[in-house]
Every structure is written in structure tokens, then in C-alpha cells.
Specification:
Its EC number is 2.7.13.3. It is an enzyme of class 2 (transferase). InterPro entries: HATPase_C_sf, HATPase_dom, His_kinase_dom, Sensor_HK_TwoCompSys, Sig_transdc_His_kin_sub3_dim/P, TPR-like_helical_dom_sf. It holds the Pfam family HisKA_3. It catalyses: ATP + protein L-histidine = ADP + protein N-phospho-L-histidine. It contains 24 helices and 5 strands. Helix 9 packs parallel to helix 11 and helix 14 runs antiparallel to helix 15. Strand 2 and strand 3 form a beta hairpin. The chain has a 5-stranded mixed sheet with strand order 1-2-3-5-4, with helices on one face. Among the domains are: 98 residues; 120 residues; 131 residues, Heat Shock Protein 90. With 630 residues, it is of the alpha+beta class.
């Protein structure tokens, strides 16, 4: 081996050690970075990997410098077309996204993972990297409450890694990520199974830095099954190891798990102490959403300790931060502008087709006039006249056929345009529901909670008021108002649907409407879990409208809701034993509820059948398609 080749091998070894020591010992990582740069040759590839490892060195200490280094590595590595370059590009893109998470959010990381990291790992034909990035994608989705999609990608990662690298760290991360998702979805048995798999992988490596992640998930599992003392022990062991390896983020995450445990044990003093330490450390305060959540927990904990003044103060800070977060929603208008642009383009096409139709009609009229003139003025040229007439008829038929074709194109364009307008209207309606629900919950709900806290704090200093019946009644009415407001907010945005899927959400909806004198039965057959969320939401709104109409207008005592699925088609049968009505009497009526129902069914390319008669109840049959154009 030549001296140059030997230096290259040594440089690669030093660079590998930069990555190894970056979390354990920053000084050693820096020493190996300098040694690797010194031994690296002048070839373009060897120079291209230097900024990648500079990014690895700054990864845990300076996100700004790390981001710039990864970006430079991407620029230098992109021209190369071999396995090692593709692997480095996959890692550089993903790490660049991580460094910009606070500024650009989870959407940016998801986009980079799907469009850059995974494709480059697949080009490199490296199944371990592919499995690793599927795990990372599952983590992102889990952090954004997309649990069904998270489980899907995590299963994909586990399937790949159990074949390609069953004892690798990537396999460990896939198992532990699965534990977290299963805990959040209350699947404790599956979580325990994956936790045992992870523990078996870690047993030969008691000093591995990955043990901290294991203890975090073990804490989460014990908390889920309410074994809180065991959870505290696991959290404590994880914190000791995370501090040893300078894993600041993990230390704070484990501390938050301890806060949750103390809160569940009603040890609010210790819970508040931990939250205040988290605020002072600021590691978890970099993300606005996490910060708002921690402020909310401080308000709740102080209220439990009857420190109403502090509770109100934290609640006020949270409200201001939530207002700041919500003000960023102007970015959603980009979608509205894009929809308007496409609408304008379609209108332009329709106008062009109409112009062509008018021209075709004018041409046809001119041909008929020309034929008439020839018939009167060219009697001596009968043969030529006959030819002209045949030719004119042929052109007229062609023009008429073109007109028919243009009309069909117009109708198709109008149908597509109507579908897009319907989708934009439904999307806007759902965004408005979400905005109003958030304003009610975070705005008015926070104000009412603040009023109650202030009132309770004031009453503590007024012993005669504390025992006053009218005062107690007023406080109880305020509690009822807060409860009713939160019920309305939940009804506007079906949180159960987002977390647990269509079937659970519909059962919850039916149970919500049931009362004495009204029985609602729900039956489900072969409903799949992978129905797109916008389709699930529209099905939920359709059934919500049907149930609401039956209760308000039909005076029904029994309601039956049946949902079944055959491949991409959903069948809904809705029956009630109410007063019934004559459908023909409402044929041309455009009530808001019925119009919304028809719009949602049309958007899902569905069909609606209503069978009813006065005094005989109502049956509604609906057929929907889960695959839409938009």
C-alpha cells in the first residue's frame, strides 16, 4: 500500500472517531477531526467529506455551524455518483434538516427525509440506512400525533432491519421507537414485546450510550401501565447515564417524564420543582410548541398547589405564546392562493373553449349561406353545385360534431372545477372549525380558567365569601361553562378521530348522542386503518350530520349506523324509526345541512339514496370512494 493510500485509510479512521466521540467527549472528537483533515488528500472526494465531519463535530454544540457545514458537504458531494457519496449525501441532508428543525419545523424534516435521505440511501443500496430513515420518519410522525402512519413506517423499518442487520443500532432504534408509539396508543403488550427485544440487543453493551434511550422508553412503558415507582427508578438510571455522556436533550426529556410521574402521584411540589429546572435549562424551550406546553403544565401544577397567582401568571404567558404560534398560520393562505390560481386557469380554458364553439357555429352558418348562394346563382353548374352541397353538409356535420365534443369537454372541465371548489370549501370549513375550536379552547377557555383562578385566589382572603352559597354556585357555574366550552371545541375538531381512527371516533360520536329514550347502535365491518385522514374526516362529518338531523327533526327513539368497506369503497346505511318525511317535498330545497351532506358525498365520488315516508322512519344508503383526485 502506498503512503498516500495509507494516509487516506488513517484519515477515514479519524473521521469515524469524530462521529463516535461527538456525544461522549467533544475534545476527543475535535482532535480526531483535526487529524483527519491533516491526513486527507487533495482529491475532490476527500475534500468533500471534510465539511460533513465538521458538521458531525458541531452537531451537539452549535447547530448554526453544523447546518452550514452539512450544506457545504451537500454542495461538494452532489457531483459524485457512487455508493459512498450517496451514503454521505443521505446523512448530510438528514442532519441538515435536523439542524434547522426549530426554524423550519417538522414539515421540513419530513420533506427532506422522503425526498432526499431515503432516496439517496436506496441509491446506495444500503438497507440499514433505509431502515434507519424509515424509523426517523416514524418518530417525526409520532411527535405530530400521526400514530397510524408512524406505526406503518416503523413496521417497515423493523421488517427491513430484521433481515439486513438484526443486531445493529438501527434495529435497536426501530424497536425503541415502536415502544413509544405503542405506549402513546395504549398498546402496552406490544410495547413490552418490543422493549424486551431492545433489551436483548443492549445486554452485551452495558456502557452503550443507547442505554439512555432504552431507559427513556422503559420509563414511558411503566408510566403507561401505572407502575409509577418502577418508572421513577428507570428515569433516575437514565438521567445518570445521560449526564455521564453529556446527552443534554435526553436528560431534559427524562426529567419531563419524572414530572409526569410526580404529577400522576399528586406530588405537585416535586413536579413543580422539576418543571422550573426544565425552564431554567432551556434545552426543551427552543421549540415554541414545547415551550407553550411546559407553561401550561406549570399553570396546572401551580393551580393544584393552590398558588393561584403563579398559575394565572403562567397561564397568561402560555396564552401569549399560543397567540404568537397561531399568528403564523398565515402560511396556510399559500394553499388558498394556489387554489385560486388553478381556478383562474380553468376559467381561462373554459373561456377559450366557448370562443371556439362560437367560431364553429359561425363557420357552420357561413357554409349554409354559401350553399344557398350557389343553389340560386349556379343553375348551369348543377354538378358543381351538388358537390358543393355535399361538401357543405360534411363540414356542417364536422362542425356539429366538434361542437358536441367541445360541449363535452366543457362539462368535464366544469365537473372537475366543481370538485376542486367543493374540496377547497370543505378544507376551508375544516380549517375554520379548527381555528374556532382552538380560539375557544386556548383563548376563551384560558380566559375562563384565568377568571376562576383569580376568583378562587381572591376568595381565599375573604373567609365569609368562601362559605357564601351564591359565591359557590357562581364558581360551579363557571366550571360548567368551561366544561361546556371544551365539549363544543372537541365536537368541532374530533380529537378521537385524529388519535385513534374512524371506527373509534364514530363509536364515541354515537355514545355522545345517546340518552334516555334514544338508543344508537353502531356496527362496523372490515373498516381499514389506512383510509386517508381527509376521507375519514368527511365520513365522520356525514354520519354526524345524519345523526344530528335524526335527533333534531325526526324525534327518533332508535338509530342504526352501519359502515362496511370493500377495497376502496365505503358503504353507509343509516336507519331511524322517527317521524319520516316526503323526500319529493324537499327535492328543490337547499338546506345548509343537506347541501353540506351532498357536497361531501360528491367530493368522495359517492351516491346518495334516501327512502322515507311520513310516519315510517327514514333509511339513507350512501356509497363512497376512499380514493379521491385531490
Amino acid at each position: 500500500m502506498s503512503d498516500r493510500a495509507a494516509d487516506t485509510v488513517k484519515a477515514e479512521a479519524h473521521f469515524t472517531l469524530v462521529d463516535y466521540w461527538k456525544f461522549k467527549d467533544a475534545l476527543k472528537s475535535k482532535i480526531h477531526l483535526a487529524a483527519g483533515k491533516k491526513l486527507a488528500g487533495r482529491s475532490s472526494y476527500e475534500q468533500a467529506v471534510i465539511p460533513f465531519y465538521e458538521g458531525q463535530y458541531y452537531f451537539n454544540s452549535d447547530p448554526g455551524k453544523a447546518s452550514a457545514a452539512f450544506k457545504e458537504a451537500i454542495r461538494k458531494l452532489t457531483p459524485f455518483r457512487d455508493k459512498r457519496a450517496y451514503e454521505k449525501l443521505a446523512a448530510a441532508w438528514y442532519n441538515y434538516a435536523l439542524m434547522n428543525k426549530d426554524a423550519k419545523g417538522y414539515d421540513f424534516i419530513t420533506k427532506i427525509t422522503l425526498e432526499k435521505a431515503i432516496p439517496y440511501a436506496e441509491r446506495a443500496r444500503n438497507p440499514v440506512m433505509v431502515g434507519h430513515y424509515y424509523t426517523q420518519l416514524a418518530t417525526i410522525l409520532m411527535n405530530n400525533a400521526q400514530f397510524s402512519k408512524s406505526l406503518m413506517y416503523n413496521r417497515k423499518a423493523v421488517s427491513i432491519l430484521e433481515k439486513a442487520a438484526p443486531k445493529s443500532s438501527a434495529m435497536l432504534f426501530a424497536y425503541l421507537n415502536g415502544v413509544s408509539v405503542c405506549c402513546y396508543t395504549e398498546q402496552s403488550e406490544k410495547a413490552l414485546y418490543l422493549l424486551h427485544k431492545a433489551k436483548k440487543l443492549l445486554e452485551p453493551y452495558p456502557d452503550s450510550v443507547n442505554n439512555t434511550l432504552y431507559y427513556y422508553n422503559e420509563t414511558l412503558y411503566y408510566t403507561t401501565v401505572n407502575a409509577l415507582d418502577k418508572a421513577l427508578v428507570s428515569a433516575g438510571m437514565g438521567i445518570v447515564m445521560a449526564e455521564k455522556y453529556h446527552q443534554e436533550q435526553m436528560v431534559q426529556q427524562l426529567l419531563f417524564r419524572k414530572y409526569d410521574i410526580y404529577s400522576r402521584q399528586k406530588d405537585f411540589q416535586n413536579a413543580r420543582h422539576i418543571l422550573m429546572d426544565i425552564v431554567k435549562d432551556r434545552t426543551l424551550m427552543r421549540n415554541s410548541i414545547d415551550k407553550a406546553m411546559i407553561y401550561g403544565e406549570l399553570a396546572k401544577t401551580n393551580a393544584a398547589l393552590k398558588d393561584y397567582r403563579s398559575a394565572y401568571s403562567w397561564l397568561d404567558v402560555q396564552k401569549k405564546l399560543n397567540d404568537s404560534i397561531n399568528s403564523g398560520e398565515s402560511r396556510l393562505k399559500i394553499n388558498e392562493l394556489e387554489t385560486r390560481y388553478r381556478t383562474a386557469e380553468n376559467r381561462r380554458k373554459i373561456a377559450n373553449l366557448q370562443s371556439q364553439n362560437r367560431q364553429a357555429a359561425l363557420n357552420s352558418k357561413n357554409e349554409r349561406l354559401y350553399s344557398g348562394i350557389l343553389a340560386i346563382g349556379c343553375l348551369l353548374l348543377f354538378a358543381i353545385l351538388g358537390f358543393a352541397i355535399v361538401n357543405a353538409r360534411s363540414k356542417r356535420k364536422l362542425a356539429e360534431q366538434k361542437e358536441i365534443n367541445y360541449r363535452q369537454q366543457l362539462e368535464e372541465l366544469e365537473r372537475k372545477q366543481q370538485l376542486k371548489v367543493t374540496k377547497a370549501m370543505l378544507d376551508g370549513e375544516e380549517r375554520e372549525r379548527e381555528r374556532v375550536a382552538r380560539d375557544l379552547h386556548d383563548g376563551l377557555g384560558g380566559m375562563l380558567a384565568g377568571v376562576k383562578i383569580s376568583l378562587s385566589s381572591w376568595a381565599e382572603d375573604q373567609s365569609e365569601i368562601e362559605e357564601n352559597k351564591r359565591f359557590r354556585k357562581t364558581v360551579d357555574q363557571l366550571d360548567s361553562a368551561v366544561t361546556e366550552l371544551r365539549r363544543i371545541a372537541r365536537n368541532m375538531v374530533p380529537e378521537t378521530l385524529l388519535k385513534f381512527g374512524l371506527e373509534t371516533a364514530l363509536k364515541d360520536l354515537c355514545e355522545f348522542y345517546m340518552r334516555n329514550g334514544l338508543e344508537i347502535s353502531c356496527e362496523f365491518f372490515d373498516i381499514r386503518k389506512d383510509i386517508p385522514l381527509n376521507v375519514q374526516l368527511n365520513i365522520y362529518r356525514i354520519i354526524q350530520e345524519l345523526v344530528s338531523n335524526a335527533i333534531r327533526h325526526a324525534d327518533a327513539a332508535r338509530i342504526l349506523v352501519q359502515c362496511s368497506q370493500n377495497e376502496s369503497v365505503i358503504f353507509i346505511t343509516f336507519e331511524d324509526d322517527g317521524a319520516g318525511y316526503d323526500p319529493s317535498a324537499f327535492k328543490n330545497t337547499k338546506g345548509m345541512g343537506l347541501e353540506n351532506l351532498k357536497n361531501r358525498i360528491a367530493y368522495l365520488k359517492g351516491q346518495l339514496e334516501i327512502v322515507s315516508a311520513p310516519g315510517e322512519g327514514t333509511t339513507v344508503n350512501i356509497e363512497l370512494n376512499t380514493v379521491t383526485d385531490g
